Amino acid sequence: MDFKSFYLQLFLLLTSLSLFHPISSRDLNHIHGPSQFLFPKYLLGSRKGHNVEGTHAIKTYLQHYGYLSKNYNIIDTNGVYNNAYDEQLECSVKKYQKFFKLNESGILDRETLSQMSQPRCSVPDFFESEDNETSITTSNLHIRSRYAFFPGRPKWTDSRNLTYSLIKNFPEKFEAAIVDAFMLWFLRSRFCFTYVSEGQKSDITISFEVGDHGDGHPFKGGVLAHAFSPEDGRLHFNGDKSFSSDLEEGKYHIRTVAAHELGHSLGLAHTNIEAAIMYPTLPSNFSKILSQDDVDGLWNLYDNFHFSCS
């Protein structure tokens, strides 16, 4: 690898970033056309009071991403899936719709199923320890509208100079894109990042994985990648997805996905601001850079960076 220092890349990246502008919601409107549903189409129109085979898959999805309490039983004591569209499910659907700024009907309409089918990060949007997570009702929906953190606000405590390694035969063709992703955060924070060879001790490890890869979070459905909060350091791309360093139809922009996951590695959770790098979903053939929301979140988490890398 011939780019172990970020400073060697600074001029090139600054030149490339000058070609981009911050993204607004208007810029994203064109990507929300019809998509292939991740769930059976016969669930379209399901609402409270219905009992349709396959509804349990919606519950599993909402539970994984933090909209439905983990105390909710999707499988009953007889081992049978609970497909009842009850009040708890309706409230969870409304919370999901509110987060993604959809019509808050509580009904599985086309826009909601389409949003659920979007490729995304597998990190939850909400966590069980957050207020209103287990007792949400239709009258007390509250959705944050800015950056967020993991429960307990974990962060890197001992250093702002973090090392990273690319492991498990990481594709050489994507190495420069990973450097660029780190650079996005370097330019807007007081973190420094240094590459170390595989086998050396590193703060962040980056790899491609497939299916059930031993971290307790198997890749399923439309998941692109995931990363763990500080100071774990693991960052995994889904090896069954197609990535590209450029914008290509049907492929996911690896620098954008990497920058999102690095946000998790630094301690940021998901935001519902669509222009932000920490927004949970990303269509193919689309790129982003950091938004002010991302930057504000990191500076808040690290107390305005009272000390920096050295």
Topology:
Blueprint: H1 10-17, H2 25-28, H3 55-64, H4 87-99, H5 110-116, E1 120-121, E2 161-166, H6 175-187, E3 192-195, E4 204-209, E5 223-227, E6 234-238, E7 243-244, E8 252-253, H7 254-266, H8 292-301
Parallel strand pairs: 1-5, 2-3, 2-4, 4-6, 7-8
Antiparallel strand pairs: 5-6
SSE pattern:
HHHHHEEHEEEEEEHH
Strand order of the largest sheet: 1-5-6-4-2-3
| Biggest beta sheet attributes | 6 strands, mixed
Architecture of the largest domain, according to CATH? Answer: 3-Layer(aba) Sandwich
Helix content: 25-40%
Shape: globular
Low-confidence segments, given as residue ranges, are 1-35, 131-140
Domain module count: 2
- Content-based structural category: alpha/beta
| CATH-derived topology of the largest domain | Collagenase (Catalytic Domain)
Number of helices: 8
CATH class of the largest domain: Alpha Beta
The CATH homologous superfamily of the largest domain is termed: Collagenase (Catalytic Domain)
Rounded radius of gyration (Å) = 20 Å
Number of strands: 8
From the structure above, extract its key features.
disordered N terminus; Muramoyl-pentapeptide Carboxypeptidase, domain 1; Collagenase (Catalytic Domain); 310 residues; globular; alpha/beta; six-stranded mixed β-sheet
Description:
α6 crosses α7. The protein has a six-stranded mixed sheet, covered by helices on one side. Strands 7-8 form a two-stranded parallel sheet. By secondary structure, it is an alpha/beta fold. The chain has two domains: 6-28 and 151-301, Collagenase (Catalytic Domain) (3-Layer(aba) Sandwich), CATH 3.40.390; 36-117, Muramoyl-pentapeptide Carboxypeptidase, domain 1, CATH 1.10.101.10. It starts with 9 loop residues before the first helix and ends in a 9-residue tail after the last helix. 25% of the residues lie in helices and 10% in strands. It is built from eight helices and eight strands. β5 (223-227) and β6 (234-238) form a beta hairpin. This is Metalloendoproteinase 2-MMP-like.
